[in-house]
Amino acid sequence: MEAPKTAPRKRKVTDKNLPNALLQSPEFAADSQMYRDLLEMERRLDWTMTRKRVEVQDAIQRIAPTTRTLRIFISHTVSGQPWQQGIEGAGAEGDAGKVNPETGEGIPAWSLRIEGRLLEIPNQRAKDKVPPRKFTTLIKQMMVEFDRDMALYPEGNIVEWLRGPQQAQLDGFTIRRKGDAPTRIRVLLHLEQQPELYKVHPELGNILGLREESRTGVIQAVWNYVKLQNLQDKVDRRVVRADAHLRPIFGADTILFQQIPEKVNRYLMPPEPIVLHYTLNPTTPPPEKPAAWDVEVRLDDSALKARMHHAMLQVSSETIREMSKLDDEIAEHVQSLNNAHLKRTFLRAFADDPQMFITTWLASQSRDLESVLGSGPSEGATVRQEDLRRSEFFRLPWVEEAVAVQDGLRLAARAGMV
């Protein structure tokens, strides 16, 4: 049993250009020019949209820095303290039975809580909001120092946290210690900046007016200083001539521009940590509200990237199908216009001089018939084969007519397939 034959696939007409004969016709010059202007505008718009789409894709891959406010909260709670048990001293004989060394019940202790969260952007649209980031994603390292006597409290006065690749994300930290004496606490935070910030050495920072900046920002500041002071060589633009301020930095009178990043790296140091001071007093009830500090941090603007990504994908599939349908309709109209122009040319030539038109047309058909039948005055060698040797043969009026008829038949067949 033979397999069913699949229907031939229809070819889409994609040519939207008008025929040259129609463009050169004085009768349709104005309309043809308007259509060509529309096509040129469409090409420019497509090129601009493609270029912008590529620029947006490139921008999404890079860091879009923005400054946000990180609010850090520090609070504490206490347990087993004398004032909680309703006594004035911790050495009363009646309390000896209430202390459980195994569970810690009745032993004076306190807990320190350190939290942080990003403040919301004011007047931000609901669709632009992104899930809040955890506190541990905003810091690289944290160190907590307790000012206590090691002889009385051997648990350790320094607690350090360093972010690792496989660590869980947390909203904050809780540190528990035993004791009933007031304790001064110092918290050191190393923030996660995007792009990473560096402390600029005063020798270079005093020249550029910078204290902390990213590596790219420092290099850009150096380049701005070079342009402002006109230190670029007049002949070789790659060469920078150092003035009295930059000569100690570069270590030479001249330097190539591509060597500036290497020189700048020597003056970049790790940034200073954020230092927070807190006093924990277990002898009194903890404050109702935690202490708070606001710190500015540079982050990758995820909301902006989300809007850019949405702008790239906002063209729905329905819109694309509608545009494709309109393109197909335009191409079909252009094809119909081309067919109508061929018919008009054919009939106008007949109306202008019917006798000459019929004579020329019969001569053309006679040559075509001789070519098909392989007959002619030269016994098998047709007139067309003989004429192919002469270039004048292809300059005769019948050539343009034959091409027009053949092109019309081809377009008619294509229209039938569509």
UniProtKB/TrEMBL annotation:
Superkingdom of origin organism: Eukaryota
Domain DM2, residue spans: 193-270
Entry-linked InterPro entries: SWIB_domain, SWIB_MDM2_dom_sf, SWIB_MDM2_domain
Region entry Disordered, spans: 1-20
Stated name of the protein: SWI/SNF complex 60 kDa subunit
Source species of the chain: Wolfiporia cocos (strain MD-104) (Brown rot fungus)
